[in-house]
Design a protein that fits this description.
It is a single chain. This protein has twelve helices and two strands, in the order αααααααββααααα. The chain is mostly helical. It has a two-stranded antiparallel ribbon. It starts with a helix and ends in a 13-residue tail after the last helix.
Length: 297
């Protein structure tokens, strides 16, 4: 499957004269789809596992889009990923690798013009406190560090989970988040987030790590492996449900970071850099949101 993906990227570069940035963006989005097919992220998706593009069906395509929608991604990101997938599927059809019209199964969600959903400062504090309300298990300390890091920096959940131990700056004062390809952006941490991260690294992570001393991933599950996006979503959804927050995803913490930072007078350019936005207008949309909890974008 990777060999055909590489051929497609060559086609983009040589036949369609796509820029290097465009090719890298397509590669990133499509590798995520390949991973979904070869190593399904959840037990309920195991029946969808395939190792050849000729086995691809409309169910695979529709389920993948539904999975994107169910977890961390905003509508505009899903639309971009689906657009890349549509072009790739069309190419597979032209190559004779698919015997059905896959494009009809790829309908991205409409990108709403409404404001992003955000939480109030009180809701954020309640969520963070909920992680360690009942105990100080290593998992609880980990969850608090993750939640504070997401809210303190505005990183995407995928960026958070891709962090390695080497991405943490001296004295836990910063983290290096991957933006795209080999590019990273350094994000400073407030004292309270640095304190939680330090406690996780020095107290909780060694307990989760166990004998897996070669593991470099920062945030681990109970088996000492890198925590997955689905695992993070389920954990945080549980905390939100306890507080009666019905519609929640880790991405809402990113929205909340942006809105609260702008409300507190942080320059738009700084928020744009923190979020990793290419377009200033994308960041500026956070200045137009309504008061309190809005609608998710």
């Amino acid at each position: 499957m990777i060999a055909q993906l590489d051929s497609f990227l060559t086609y983009l570069r040589e036949d369609r004269k796509a820029s290097d940035n465009t090719v890298l963006a397509y590669k990133s989005d499509l590798l995520q789809f390949v991973e979904f097919l070869e190593t399904p992220p959840e037990e309920r998706y195991q029946h969808l596992k395939i190792s050849d593009w000729s086995d691809l069906t409309g169910v695979h395509l529709e389920t993948y889009v539904e999975d994107l929608d169910a977890y961390e991604y905003v509508r505009s990101t899903i639309a971009r990923k689906v657009a890349a997938l549509r072009i790739f599927v069309q190419w597979l059809q032209e190559q004779g690798s698919l015997d059905f019209d896959g494009v009809v199964h790829l309908r991205p969600p409409a990108v709403p013009r409404s404001n992003p959903r955000v939480l109030t400062h009180q809701q954020i504090r309640q969520l963070i406190d909920a992680t360690t309300a009942d105990d100080m298990r290593p998992e609880s300390i980990r969850d608090r560090a993750m939640m504070e890091l997401l809210y303190a920096t505005g990183v995407r959940a995928s960026e958070l989970l891709s962090l390695d131990v080497d991405d943490i700056g001296p004295e836990y004062a910063s983290v290096a988040a991957e933006t795209s390809g080999d590019q990273t952006r350094s994000l400073g941490l407030p004292v309270w987030a640095a304190k939680s991260l330090k406690r996780y690294v020095e107290v909780a992570r060694p307990q989760l790590l166990g004998d897996n001393e070669n593991q470099r991933a920062m945030f681990l599950n109970h088996r000492g492996s890198r925590l997955t996006r689905q695992g993070l979503w389920l954990l945080f959804k549980g905390y939100a449900s306890q507080l009666g927050i019905e519609t929640f995803s880790p991405h809402i913490l990113r929205h909340s970071f942006a809105v609260h930072a702008l409300e507190n007078g942080v320059p738009l350019s700084e928020v744009q850099t923190a979020l990793g936005h290419v377009s200033r207008s994308t960041t500026a949309s956070y200045k137009r949101r309504g008061v309190g909890v809005g609608t998710e974008s």
